[in-house]
Structure formats: C-alpha cells, structure tokens
Design brief:
about 20% strand; Aldehyde Dehydrogenase, Chain A, domain 2; 2 domains; 15 helices; six-stranded mixed β-sheet; globular; about 475 residues; Aldehyde Dehydrogenase, Chain A, domain 1; single chain; alpha/beta
Length: about 475
C-alpha cells in the first residue's frame, strides 16, 4: 500500500499536508513491522476550522430536500457495498478482524446508509386539536445542529456508519473523530462520502488524538450534540463536560455480558453461543459474553465440550481464510489480556486452556482464547471488562441462582440464555436489566435496523440505530396556530 501521508477531511476537501504535522503510523497487528498507511494528525486549530465549517453548513443542510438527502445516503451505501472486498481487507489489516467478519462489518455499514436513505423520506409529525377553540397544534422534529461523533477502534466502519448515516439523514452536520488505531477505514469512508454530492462543510473527519481533537469537540460551544462509543471512564468524562454545557449526549461504554446455560439446554447450541459470543472478533466486542453462568446438571458436559472446541480454534493472520481468531488490536491490548490472566491465576481461578501470547514469524499480537473455571463472583476477571477472548465460567445450582448472578454487574448491555424452557426464556427476557436479550443465541450479533443500547453503566441517552436514532439526532418542536 502507498505510504503517502493522508490527511483529515475538512470543509469539503482533504487538507493539504504541511510537512510539520505529527505523523501517525497505522500498524498491522498481524505483522507489527508492516505500516499500512501514514496519517498527519489534526490539532486543535484544524478542529476549530472543521467545527466552524460544519456550523456554517448546518442551516442549509437541515432544511434540504429529503429526497436529496436520501439520494446521497443511498449513493454512499451503494459504493460501500460495491467496494466491500477492498474495504474488508483494509479493515482486517488495521484492526485484526478476520476477513469473514470484516466482510460482514462492511455490509452492515453499507446497509446502514441505505436504511437511513429510506428513513429520510419517512414523514414524521403529529397534529392535535387544542383544548382551546379554533387553535391547531403541530408537533414535528428538526435537526439538532452540529453533531460531534467519536467512535472506537473495534468496529472501524460499522459504528461510524450507524452514527454518521442517521445524523445526515435527519439534517445534521458532522464532526467525526475516529479512533487513532483504525484511521484507514475512517479515511476510506470519508473518501466515499466526499464524492457523494454532500454539500461542503456538512461532513468533516479529523484524525487525531482524543486529548486534543476529542477534547476540542466535546468542549466547543458550537457542538450541539455528542455521540460517543468507548470506555466507561472516558464516557463519564464526556458526560460531565456535556452536562456542564447543557448539550445532549449519547454514550455506549461497554459491558460484562452474561450467558446463562440451563440444564435443559441443547448442548450444541450452548457451546456454539459461548464460543461465538466470547471469542469471535477476538473478544473485542462490547456485547461479548465474557461471563458464562452454567447450572450444575449440564456443567461437566458443557465444560468438556467447550474446552475441546476452544482448543480447535486457529489463531492467526486476519487475512488467512483458515483463521478463526485474528490478533488483538495492539500491544497494549495484548499486555492487558495477559495481565488479566495473571490476575485470575493469582485470585485462585483455574485456567483450563489458552491465555498465552502465541509466537509467530511476524511477531503478531496473537493471544490464545482462555477459559477460566473455579470462578468466584468477586474476582476481577469476572467483574471487569477485559475486552479480549477471556471467558469465565461460573457454576450455579438452578435458574434463580443463575439469574441473580447474571444481574450482579454494574453493566447492562446484553444478556443471553440457552434453554428449551419457554417459562425460563420468557422470565429472563422480562426481568433482565440488560438492554438487549438473546435466547439460544450468542450475546454478540445485532441487526442494523433495530435499537441498540443498554442500561446501567453500559449506555446513556437515547438508543442507537433503527428508527430510534431519530430521538437523539432531532429535537421536537410544538407549534400553535389560531384557525
């Protein structure tokens, strides 16, 4: 790939490289010696230029023809899907996701834009009779204004897509800051958007550090809303700053998701759900099931089958079609995974398999999927989000104990149950405090056209995706008129 230095996209163009900028090297986690691409980091001054451009463009875009917006969104979605193999390879190279998963993510991004192309044409409004004679009432929605979008590294094209598409759909202008670990997917998406016919200044993309670019975005008086996906600690800081400015905020911050497996479960379904939810995407998903809670009657058979299947998983290069699990995203994440494995051992848990840095010719960030048993609920590996392929299995006696254990967490994003009992499935769906419930399915894996989000420490603000995105990206206006 070309090592030409790429730049941010501001006010309708990729800015000129001046030669003095701080340079970001995009590293391939399958082969850390491979620099995929190089980028000039944006600073506070360029961020302010982007915000100013978005503010100028916001009024005209907010009042633009909905068919015009629909055509642009559909064009973006079409090009993403047309270039799916190219974009998926780029995603795999920079994030470490295996090519099959990368293709699925690119598809999801494309279909997100196409979904909101249709939503742009959906007329939404209400008409009421007033309690006063000869007075009519209309209630409708309008764009919020300038939206700051801060996205994470683990879904480098899907999450930006499901934030950018509805923001544009409902007439908002955008300042988009991707994670520095995955600038290539963000740049490719910006390049597609740049040729979509979108008016100048409506969309801006800044590649740069959170302490400069991100901080400038969330503190700017010209940013009217902030949508953030990332760590809980950073999310809390974003929320505090947004609250001090009285601007709306939407946060997705992670989870420690439980998968409950009951004695009556189909063992094949149970093992498959645990493997998919815990280890695929290298466990680097906020919806991953890192806590599996198993009742005593099925426990021994489940553990034996799970260990056998786990040991058969191939860890290797993201572009190798035979790989089941790619590398973790960078050396920092690898060290964090290894640190949690050591913590689990020190706390008395039993490591059945995995939990090692695997050697390779390219010195990739390969980590073998780990299973811990003899878990106690107070252990760090059971309570804290690791964001890697580390699975804790807790043994309980019955459904009520399993449900209580599932609820024993400060998070509330996703939760699952594997059972053939309609009674227990319905009870779990009704009583679980998680925002998304899966029955006989992995906790990870959701559709693009329905609401995404959780409760407690996982999420704050209106839901993402689907028709529910309108709640965040628009404001409600009520008008009265004398007949």
């Amino acid at each position: 790939m070309s090592k030409l230095i790429k730049t941010s996209y501001v006010n309708g163009e990729f800015v000129a490289y001046q030669g003095s900028e701080d340079i970001l090297n995009n590293i391939n986690p399958s082969n850390p010696d491979d620099v995929i691409e190089r980028f000039a980091r944006a600073d506070e001054a360029l961020t302010q230029q982007a915000i100013a451009a978005a503010k100028v463009a916001s009024t005209e875009w907010a009042n633009s023809n909905p068919q015009f917006r629909a055509n642009i969104l559909d064009k973006i979605g079409t090009e993403i899907l047309t270039r799916r193999e190219e974009l998926a390879k780029l995603l795999s190279l920079e994030e470490g996701k295996i090519i099959k998963e990368a293709l699925g993510e690119v598809d999801r991004a494309g279909y997100s834009f196409k979904f909101y192309a249709q939503e742009a044409l959906r007329a939404v409004g209400e008409k009421y009779n007033s309690v006063r004679e000869q007075v009519g009432i209309d209630v409708y929605t309008q764009a919020v204004g300038v939206v700051g979008i801060i996205s994470p590294w683990n879904f480098p094209i899907a999450i930006p897509a499901w934030k950018i598409a509805p923001a544009l759909c409902f007439g908002n202008s955008i300042i988009f800051k991707p994670a520095e670990l995955v600038p290539s997917s963000a740049w490719a998406l910006a390049e597609i958007i740049s040729r979509s016919g979108l008016p100048t200044g409506v969309f801006n993309m800044l590649i740069g550090p959170g302490r400069k670019v991100g901080d400038a975005i969330i503190r700017s008086p010209d940013i009217n809303a902030i949508t953030f996906t990332g760590s809980e600690n950073t999310g809390r800081q974003v929320a505090e700053i947004a609250a001090s400015r009285l601007v709306r905020v939407q946060l997705e911050m992670g989870g420690k998701n439980p998968l409950v497996i009951l004695d009556d479960a189909d063992l094949d379904i149970a093992v498959d759900a645990a493997l998919q939810g815990s280890f695929f995407s290298t466990g680097q998903r906020c919806t991953a099931s890192s806590r599996v809670i198993v009742t005593a009657g099925i426990y021994a058979d489940f553990i034996a089958r799970l260990e056998e299947k786990t040991r058969s998983l191939k860890v290797g290069s993201a572009l190798d079609g035979n790989t089941h699990i790619g590398p973790v995203v960078d050396i920092k994440q690898l060290k964090q995974n290894l640190s949690y494995v050591q913590s689990g051992l020190e706390e008395g848990a039993t490591l059945l398999c995995g939990g090692e840095h695997l050697p390779s010719e390219q010195n990739g960030f390969y980590f073998s999927p780990a299973i811990f048993t003899d878990i106690k609920p107070e252990m760090r590996i059971y309570r804290e989000e690791i964001f890697g392929p580390v699975l804790c299995v807790l043994k309980v006696n019955n459904y009520e104990e399993a449900f209580a254990a599932a609820e024993d967490t400060p998070f509330g994003l996703s939760a699952g149950i594997v059972t053939t009992s309609l009674k227990y499935a319905e009870d779990f769906k009704r009583r679980s405090s998680a925002g998304m419930i899966m029955v006989n399915l992995a906790t990870a894996g959701v559709d693009y056209h329905v609401a995404f989000g959780g409760n407690k420490g996982s999420s704050l603000g209106p839901r993402e995706q689907g028709t529910y995105a309108r709640q965040f990206f628009t404001r409600v206006k009520t008008t009265y008129q004398l007949a």
